[in-house]
Amino acid sequence: MSLSNGTLNVRVARIEAVTPEIKRFTLVSTDGAHLPPFSGGSNVVVLIPHASGTYRNAYSLMSSPYDSSAYQIAVRRVEDGRGGSRQMHQAVNEGDVLEILRPVNLFPLSKHARLHLFIAGGVGITPVCSQLAELRLRGTPFEVHLAVRGAEHARLGEELQREYGDAVRLYRNDIDQRLDIAAVVADRPLGSHLYVCGPESMIQGAIDSARAQGWTDSHIHYERFLEQGSAGEAFSVTLARSGATIEVSPDQSLLEAAEAAGHEIPYLCRGGACGMCETDVLELDGEILHTDDWLSDEDKAANKKIMPCVSRAKCSRLVIDC
Amino acid sequence: MLITGIKSRPVYDQLHPLPGGTHHLIAGQGSGGLAMLRLLDDMAGEGLNITLLYSRESFSGQDFLAQLQQRDIADLRIYPSNQALVDDLNRVLGDARMGTRLYLSGSESFIGTAMQVATRYDMNSDEVLREHAGSFVRRVWCVHCDSYTENVTQRVFQCPGCSSMLVVRDHYSRRLAAFQAVKADAEVPGELPVAEELDT
């Protein structure tokens, strides 16, 4: 597949279990060269081959942006997901070669912030890991508030505590340590920025708490786990440029269905955040189920645009400009 | 050499209450007082936490202090000069918390220097509104001696810092809060461009 940002071949140098559900993969280039540079908060899309096609899952880079000899990603096994993370856990071994896309950053640090506050749940800590490496060099103060289920899920947080000390606070649900998001955002100096990565309820809770205390949206940043596009009802879509009509199954996104049928739609994040795959809706008989963070509320109401990576439709006819 | 229609010049707002703020800082000078009074009317009765900063320095002699003093503002601070206000704004923002909203009204020079302070505290466009008042006389920065000249109205003028004859370029720097001026006769000494009134 030809893409503006190209693909890279990487060798899996190391796989380690860091929690019962999370494996950390260390990826190096196949020819010993350094990998492309990236900034804290970046992710890569991993192309995961399986019996009937390719999964494309985005994973945050958790290694230091100042060491491009290797990339590290953490993959949480999602039992009831589409199968990409299961495949990564079961079928990928040390020494294997994987194809990935070059890093892109959809969760960058604010360059002018005076204080960085991070709120993370579970595997949501991974983008923060690379961001902290960047902040340490820059010298800007930060705090990390990480909630995990229990001791066996705390390893990434404990590693960060060894590295960054008291700036990293760990909350274990099993011993009733509660992360009070409203208290984290309370009474903070002007120029503070909040970054949230975790389950939907955590993100919404953090947005609500910050807004309630007068924070504006330009100081609130979040990254969702990217699973929302591929669960729903089947529908069909016609790609106007080729005239092809494609069936989107309940466990596929529109983008995945188009790719499986051999069509190319430009994409970056595959999570409804970056805007790359924005497509005009030419005909619609029914409604679009928008689940992206990109289109404005007005755009969503107008139903003239769709984000094929996450959004679905409930309709008898949908024609898009692809 | 000079470009008309200055794209780098900020586009100013109209002051109106910004939603969600926990503390509202209203800072202005001279003619800006009128917009401050209008904003206070819009905010009246909401029980908002308001601090008012007003400088009586004015290019045109406009002074709205008496009217501002008639308003029921718990924290009204008065300054003899724009610089004194901006210095205090720096202290106030240094102690301020998230949830603060900033409203600026006055000359371009005043708004520009106040914005330099707000930018230091990483205030963004959803936390700050700026309303221009009075004339568009320019604050000019000399690229040669790094001095600033206030209230410039002529295209060509002599720099009080280095005595060079300068031509004011149509480029506004937000970082410097000033228009850029360069030596007017650098190529042929003594050959000056036509003197003209600035599109102030």
From TrEMBL, chain A:
MF annotations from Gene Ontology: 2 iron, 2 sulfur cluster binding; metal ion binding; oxidoreductase activity
User: Keywords on this record?
Assistant: 2Fe-2S, Flavoprotein, FMN, Iron, Iron-sulfur, Metal-binding, Oxidoreductase
**This protein's record includes keyword Lipid metabolism:** no
Q: Which CDD domains match?
A: fer2, PDR_like
What SUPFAM superfamilies does the annotation carry?
2Fe-2S ferredoxin-like, Ferredoxin reductase-like, C-terminal NADP-linked domain, Riboflavin synthase domain-like
Q: Outline the extent of the 2Fe-2S ferredoxin-type domain.
A: 235-322
Residues of the FAD-binding FR-type domain: 5-110
Cofactor(s) it depends on: FMN
Q: Does the keyword Iron apply?
A: yes
| Alphabetized InterPro entries for the sequence | 2Fe-2S_ferredoxin-like_sf, 2Fe-2S_ferredoxin-type, 2Fe2S_fd_BS, Beta-grasp_dom_sf, DmmA-like_N, FAD-bd_FR_type, FNR_nucleotide-bd, MRET
The name on file for this protein is Putative oxygenase electron transfer component
Organism in which the protein naturally occurs: Metapseudomonas resinovorans NBRC 106553
From TrEMBL, chain B:
The Dimethylamine monooxygenase subunit DmmA-like C-terminal domain covers which part of the protein?
139-182
Keywords from UniProt, A to Z, are: 2Fe-2S, Flavoprotein, Iron, Iron-sulfur, Metal-binding, Oxidoreductase
Stretches assigned to the Dimethylamine monooxygenase subunit DmmA-like N-terminal domain: 5-128
Q: Which Pfam families match?
A: DmmA-like_C (PF22289), DmmA-like_N (PF22290)
User: What InterPro entries does the record point to?
Assistant: DmmA-like_C (IPR048037), DmmA-like_N (IPR054582), FNR_nucleotide-bd (IPR039261)
One MF annotation (Gene Ontology) recorded for this entry: oxidoreductase activity
Protein name in UniProt: Oxidoreductase
Identify the species of origin: Metapseudomonas resinovorans NBRC 106553
According to the entry, what is the taxonomic lineage of the organism?
A: Bacteria, Pseudomonadati, Pseudomonadota, Gammaproteobacteria, Pseudomonadales
